[in-house]
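Milestone M4 deliverable, item 7.
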Amino acid sequence: MFNINRKKGEIFYMKEIKLMNTDKVALVDDCDFPYVNGFDWYITEKGHVRRGTRENREYKTIFLHNFIWQLHNGIIPDGFIVDHINRQPLNCQMSNMRLATRKENARNRSLSSNNTSGFTGVTFNKDEKYPSWNARWNDESGKEKSKRFDPTDEGKILAARFRDKMILSFQGEFVGHLNFPNNILSDEEFEKLLEKKDMSGENSPRYGKHHTEEAKKKISEANKGNNKGMIGSNHPFYGKHHTEETKKKISKSLQGKFVGKKVSEETRKKLSTKAKEWYKTHTPPNLGKHLSEETKRKLSESHKGKQCGKNNPRATKVRIKETNQIFNTINECAEFLNVSRNTVRDSIKNNKKMRCGYTIEYI
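Output delivered:
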């Protein structure tokens, strides 16, 4: 038996490996057959071929595609797996295998079994007023993108072809299932579709329109109770924490967003009123409590070397008007005068003398 590689015109002779738990067979190259024949191979639920062995009294699973790849190329590098080019895990010929990252391997998949449109990356928007076929794909960063097409058979086919063209533009050889591999959009057709107005933003028929007060009330009533019980231990994210990597990404994304922005006086009054109302019916959880010496020491250690206090590049210096003495921070000034920081802030804000006889101002 042989297989013809149509791209190169080469012939690869192959043999069949019988599987113990199915009538199906696995295909391997002629040269690999002696190394895999004579073992009991089984097919897994996901369709891969495996066998078991024992090493040092420990059971070990060997996958056929990994075994053959390593026969020819050595150990599989960290971060990579063996990918079946034609998405058929029973075909373990070297011409059908390549190294891929898990992300690339996930792209190379067949049409999903629960697909209802008949095309990969195409879904139907059932909006009563504005139905449409939507082409969906993930860009290079993994962010989901979409584009709408007319709710007709022609629109569905255009959506499928548009999705094919989009993923071909950046996914390269790991493109996965194409809806029309032999009918890819030409660059001219593609440009025309890109120029065609989408149904989002200002192009949406609803742009600039608003719900009536009656409609808002109905929506509000319909949503009541949807978040009931989603607090504390009932919340789906309760007890979960961001990884350090995620924290860094969030911190980086927020850098500079609020620089130079100040809360308006109106907003401050609203916040103040809300706080006063809250204190009338609630007791602050930390009222009367003080940090232990151990906690103070830990906080002190954690702040060492960080941009806080006088090391903070945004720290504002203050001055005692009467003596012209300058301090790097409000905290330093308060410690020198043996008063609280709030007292110093109050003196700066209202330009008034403190009980100690001094007036403080920003430099």
